[in-house]
């Protein structure tokens, strides 16, 4: 675990950042994948399944990030996030609804008084390719419209070119533009090529002020995986030990089944433990997971799957 004495201080040069990030311990890729796979096969007791499903529902950032999104679609999603099963009030609400910045106002209106947060992607999502000034405008607009959480994506081009200082400064500037809103930093792990790079990007984001580190946009070939999520969990654990500051983790992209969601909860429980096992510190970013969780919940309670009319279309 890195010592705080080795952290680059304010005004550190790119060379200092490079020395710090490349001085982090290398990732044992085979060991990481084996550990993630082993934890993924761990079964949970039948009695704990209901709790796990409800916990997963409460951790969802219910997401729609399509060019064809409409206010009507966002309102329907908000209704679903606030009351996933209208005839059963025991179903927990989702943690947040995640939308593009121009739809934040619609979501804020629809979710008022429900306790569900509005999250918005910003900073030229999903590519991250725009001038910093445009990214700041994007972020401020989303916050001004009422977003309580901003999901920013890092500039992978700068990171892969070794321009760590630029990535650090950009995250720090967006963190400042967020004001009271929480900042989730999307590393886009599927484009960072190596596990060592994922660990470096994660430390860079945490040191720049990220409230959450998030695996993926959901828009590339490889999104959340148990291995890259495990790597983030180990980093936030080490960061807490080194600095006393807790950072959340969001696994996002490609998580569609209850089985997968429960695997992520087992990963959290077995690595960083109950301190992260709440929506405050762990999220599942997903556009089409909720229905499967609702169907499994119904099966657990009644012994049979519901008919096709039981859940609304995602
Ligand atoms: O942040 C959430 C992701 O964009 C959702 O990805 P997904 O559509 O694969 O569930």
Automatic annotation (TrEMBL):
Matching InterPro entries: Aldolase_TIM, DeoC, DeoC/FbaB/LacD_aldolase
Classification via CDD domains: DeoC
GO cellular component, one term: cytoplasm
Reactions catalysed according to its record: 2-deoxy-D-ribose 5-phosphate = D-glyceraldehyde 3-phosphate + acetaldehyde
EC class name: lyase
UniProt superkingdom: Bacteria
EC number: 4.1.2.4
Keyword Cytoplasm part of the UniProt annotation: no
Example of a GO MF term: deoxyribose-phosphate aldolase activity
Record flagged with keyword Lyase: yes
Pathway membership: Carbohydrate degradation; 2-deoxy-D-ribose 1-phosphate degradation; D-glyceraldehyde 3-phosphate and acetaldehyde from 2-deoxy-alpha-D-ribose 1-phosphate: step 2/2
Keywords: Lyase, Schiff base
A Pfam family the protein falls into: DeoC
GO biological process annotation, one example: deoxyribonucleotide catabolic process
Protein family per UniProt: Belongs to the DeoC/FbaB aldolase family. DeoC type 2 subfamily.
UniProt cross-references to NCBIfam families, sorted A to Z: deoC
PANTHER family: DEOXYRIBOSE-PHOSPHATE ALDOLASE
Protein name per its UniProtKB record: Deoxyribose-phosphate aldolase
